[in-house]
Write a structure and sequence with these properties.
Length: 344
């Protein structure tokens, strides 16, 4: 893989149409300093603690406030209005209909084909909460995912580190792609399905050379936010999240720019599982944030399967369908299992 033009970027996985990145100091978008940093081959990058610190403290908080999901929710619906009463939401739903209401149509297209299920974690399988360490999955959701995995190859594709998302999900029978797909592990249970291929690609880490740099960035960010009340830093192995939900309700992410994202991870997993026959396979990807759009885009562009966006607000999306929240995601997963049982 050619990493010669790689650099870390800051991404905001929550805000889809917000000007957060545009308003960031450019040195945060692609900071480029070598002294004291790690000379990672092919990378024009190391860490300037001072610049990161300055930028976070001076530039980001305003941008974060303006792109706050809570603020957008209020703007979108007006205080006190439910999505159902909002004409903008109804108009959006016409373009991105409920996957529950469209369930019959979805499964009619899947008749005689194999379904593969891809699930984002935060905001999809667990509700968004203030403390990222407390974003646990409910036992009923776990049961729903376990059942789905009995009938369909199922993968979790998360921005979290692979280990952390596994600690939350705790299901060995799934495939896990952590760090936005930059850390893919085929489960031992799934070895039986495709033994040779899984052994070859048991662990796939396309951004491995960035590890020392990400650790260095984590240290710098920890230092930079140490004076910001409520801000925390989460090392997700191949990317780092700066949480400012408790400062201004958002998360900011630093990760390597390599030609790899959740969309590529889905393609990789489909190939790994021998499910890349688009004529006969229907991948279903459910996710709630901007990083999931890469996966929705792949499904749309290859005209294969369905992206389902979890959102209570109208958003520009490449997904075909929508679900409002994790409880609707669970309902959808239960529908899939019921349908499969009856069609066997
Ligand atoms: O790809 P995902 O599985 O959706 O992970 C994306 C980020 O999710 C987590 O942050 C988000 O959820 C937290 C818990 O509900 C919430 O406190 C935070 O404000 C959200 O942004 C995770 O902590 C991040 O590291 C992931 O990048």
């Amino acid at each position: 893989m050619d990493l010669s033009n790689s650099s870390p970027v800051i991404t905001d996985p929550v805000a889809i149409n917000q000007p957060l990145l545009g308003s960031l100091p450019s040195n945060l978008m692609q900071y480029s300093v070598m002294p004291g940093g790690y000379p990672v081959p092919g990378m024009n990058v190391s860490v300037n603690r001072l610049k990161i610190g300055e930028a976070i403290v001076s530039g980001l908080l305003d941008a974060m406030k303006s792109s706050s999901p809570r603020r957008r929710l209020n703007v979108a619906f007006g205080q006190g209005n439910s999505p159902d009463e909002d004409p903008a939401y109804s108009a959006w739903m016409a373009k991105c209909p409920s996957a529950l209401a469209s369930f019959k149509k979805i499964v009619a297209n899947a008749q005689g084909k194999k379904i593969a299920v891809f699930l984002d974690y935060d905001g999809t399988l667990s509700p968004i909460v203030d403390d990222p360490d407390k974003a646990v999955m409910s036992p009923v959701m776990r049961a729903a995912v376990r059942n789905v995995a009995k009938y369909f190859p199922t993968a979790i594709v998360s921005g979290r580190s692979r280990n952390k998302v596994f600690e939350f999900v705790k299901l060995k029978e799934l495939y896990y792609a952590g760090s936005h797909g930059m850390d893919i592990m085929a489960s031992s249970a799934n070895y039986e399905h495709n033994a040779e291929k899984c052994k070859q690609a048991n662990l796939f880490q396309p951004a491995r050379e960035f590890l020392p740099m990400i650790d260095e960035v984590t240290k710098s960010l920890l230092q930079a936010v140490s004076g910001v009340d409520g801000a925390t830093v989460e090392n997700n192995k191949f990317c780092v999240s700066v949480h400012y939900r408790n400062v201004a309700e958002k998360v900011l992410e630093v990760r390597p720019v390599i030609d790899w994202d959740k969309g590529k991870a889905v393609e990789f997993l489909l190939q790994l599982l021998g499910l890349n026959d688009s004529e006969n396979v229907i991948p279903i990807y459910i996710g709630d944030d901007r990083t999931d759009e890469d996966a929705f885009k792949v499904l749309r562009q290859t005209n294969c399967g369905y992206g389902i966006l979890v959102s209570q607000v109208p958003k520009e999306t490449q997904a075909f369908y929508s679900l409002r929240d994790p409880s609707e995601v669970m309902e959808f997963l239960n529908f899939l299992v019921r349908w499969k049982k009856h069609s066997m």
